[in-house]
C-alpha cells in the first residue's frame, strides 16, 4: 500500500503540473482525468475502497460534462483545440460556459457540488491517517494544482482577451448537443448528496483539528486567488526549460 500511495501521489502531482503548462483543451481535461484517477488510487492505498468507488461515480458525471462542453467548443471554434486561440467565448457560448464552469468547480471540490462530497471525504479521512506531514502536504498541493489548471482553462477560454481564432454560435441552437450538457449539469449539482446517501446510509464521523478541517477549503480558495492574480502576468515572460519539460509530459512518452 505504501508503494501505491507513492505512485498515486506522484501521478496526481505530475498530471497537475503538466496541465498548468498545456495548451491543448482535450489534453488538459485528459490530464485532469489522470489526476483524479490518482486520487482514486490514493484512496485505495489508504483502504478507503468505497470512497474510491464513490469518487469514480461522481467524477464520471462531471468529467463527461467537461468533455462534452470541450467538444462543443472545439466544434464551434473552427475545430481548433488550442486554448490560446479562444478567449471571450462566454459571449458566443453562454450556456456552455455556465455548464463547463459548473463542471470545473465540481472538479475543484467547491462545497455542495458533486465533486465536493467524494473528494472532501477522501481528503478528511486521509488527514486521520498517520502517514506523516509529507503525504498530507503533497495531497494539499495536488488539490491546489487542480484548482490552478481549472482556473487557467476557464480564464483563457471564456474570460481572457480574444485569441484570434474563428468562432460561431450555431452550436447552442442544436438541442442534440446542448440537451445532454444540460442534463449532465443537473447531475453535477445533485449526484453528490444522492450518491452519498445511497452509498453511506450511516454518516461518516470525522474528528480533526480546525486547521486540517478547513485545510482543503483554504487551499482551494488561495489557489483560486493566486491564479486569478497571476493570469495577466503568466504569459508575459517565458518559463523556458520548465515549460518545455512539462509541455512534453516530463519526457515520459519517450
From TrEMBL:
Residues 1-19 form the signal peptide. It catalyses: a ubiquinone + NADH + 5 H(+)(in) = a ubiquinol + NAD(+) + 4 H(+)(out). Residues 149-253 form the NADH dehydrogenase subunit 5 C-terminal domain. The chain crosses the membrane at residues 29-49, 56-75, 95-117, 129-151, 177-198, 210-230. One of its GO terms (biological process) is ATP synthesis coupled electron transport. One of its GO terms (cellular component) is mitochondrial inner membrane. It is a multi-pass membrane protein. Keywords: Electron transport, Membrane, Mitochondrion, Mitochondrion inner membrane, NAD, Respiratory chain, Signal, Translocase, Transmembrane, Transmembrane helix, Transport, Ubiquinone. InterPro entries: NADH_DH_su5_C (IPR010934), ND/Mrp_TM (IPR001750), NU5C-like (IPR003945). It comes from the Eukaryota. Its EC number is 7.1.1.2. Pfam families: NADH5_C (PF06455), Proton_antipo_M (PF00361). The keyword Mitochondrion applies. Residues 3-140 form the NADH:quinone oxidoreductase/Mrp antiporter transmembrane domain. One of its GO terms (molecular function) is NADH dehydrogenase (ubiquinone) activity. It is found in: Mitochondrion inner membrane. Core subunit of the mitochondrial membrane respiratory chain NADH dehydrogenase (Complex I) that is believed to belong to the minimal assembly required for catalysis. Complex I functions in the transfer of electrons from NADH to the respiratory chain. The immediate electron acceptor for the enzyme is believed to be ubiquinone. This is NADH-ubiquinone oxidoreductase chain 5. It comes from Daphnia pulex (Water flea).
Amino acid at each position: 500500500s505504501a508503494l501505491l500511495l507513492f505512485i498515486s501521489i506522484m501521478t496526481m502531482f505530475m498530471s497537475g503540473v503538466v496541465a498548468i503548462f498545456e495548451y491543448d483543451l482535450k489534453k488538459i481535461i485528459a490530464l485532469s482525468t489522470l489526476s483524479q484517477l490518482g486520487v482514486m488510487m490514493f484512496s485505495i492505498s489508504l483502504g478507503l475502497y468505497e470512497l474510491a468507488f464513490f469518487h469514480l461515480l461522481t467524477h464520471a458525471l462531471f468529467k463527461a460534462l467537461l468533455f462534452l462542453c470541450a467538444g462543443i467548443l472545439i466544434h464551434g471554434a473552427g475545430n481548433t483545440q488550442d486554448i490560446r486561440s479562444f478567449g471571450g467565448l462566454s459571449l458566443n457560448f453562454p450556456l456552455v460556459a455556465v455548464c463547463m464552469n459548473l463542471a470545473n468547480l465540481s472538479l475543484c471540490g467547491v462545497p455542495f457540488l458533486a465533486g465536493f462530497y467524494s473528494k472532501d471525504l477522501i481528503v478528511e479521512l486521509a488527514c486521520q491517517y498517520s502517514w506523516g506531514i509529507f503525504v498530507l502536504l503533497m495531497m494539499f498541493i495536488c488539490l491546489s494544482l487542480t484548482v490552478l489548471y481549472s482556473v487557467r482553462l476557464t480564464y483563457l477560454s471564456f474570460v481572457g482577451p480574444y485569441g484570434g481564432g474563428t468562432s460561431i454560435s450555431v452550436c447552442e441552437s442544436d438541442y442534440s448537443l446542448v440537451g445532454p450538457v444540460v442534463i449532465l449539469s443537473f447531475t453535477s449539482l445533485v449526484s453528490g448528496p444522492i450518491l452519498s446517501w445511497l452509498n453511506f446510509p450511516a454518516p461518516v464521523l470525522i474528528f480533526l483539528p480546525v486547521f486540517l478541517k478547513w485545510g482543503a477549503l483554504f487551499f482551494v480558495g488561495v489557489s483560486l486567488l493566486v491564479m486569478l492574480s497571476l493570469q495577466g502576468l503568466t504569459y508575459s515572460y517565458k518559463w523556458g526549460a520548465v515549460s518545455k519539460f512539462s509541455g512534453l509530459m516530463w519526457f515520459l512518452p519517450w
